[in-house]
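From the methods appendix. Each design record in this collection lists the tokenized structure first, followed by the designed amino acid sequence. Records were kept in a plain field format so they could be parsed without special tools. The example shown here is representative of the layout used throughout.

RECORD:
FOLD TOKENS (122 positions):
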């Protein structure tokens, strides 16, 4: 959206409508705004106050996943691999076929990613 008051008011109205229809509330303490470098500091503060959100230079994570990955995919997603490995380690003593282990690994990996998405961050 453009960094103007009328568009922020539209976003605020959409969030209010979402809250009314879903029964869920947007947590302003977990919500962040980022702006183009061309937006003046005074305008940033005005719009952040209107939406009751904090301003950040860039977002660390979105839906539990990093927003900036960079060159190293291992570094960006290593925590997911570690979480899956920890779960798989518990299964070492269980008797599962290769296909059963594959299905179990996929389910756990998807659950880890989904929990990150639902929690907003991990």
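DESIGN:
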């Amino acid at each position: 959206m453009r960094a103007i008051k009328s568009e922020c008011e539209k976003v605020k109205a959409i969030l209010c409508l979402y809250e009314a229809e879903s029964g869920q509330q947007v947590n302003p303490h977990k919500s962040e705004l980022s702006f183009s470098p061309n937006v003046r500091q005074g305008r940033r503060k005005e719009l952040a106050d209107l939406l009751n959100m904090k301003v950040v230079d860039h977002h660390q994570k979105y839906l539990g996943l990093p927003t900036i990955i960079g060159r190293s995919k291992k570094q960006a997603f290593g925590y997911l691999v570690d979480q899956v490995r920890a779960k798989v380690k518990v299964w070492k003593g269980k008797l599962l076929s290769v296909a059963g282990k594959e299905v179990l690994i996929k389910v756990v990996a998807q659950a880890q990613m989904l929990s990150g998405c639902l929690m907003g961050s991990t």
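APPENDIX NOTE: The radius of gyration is 20 Å.
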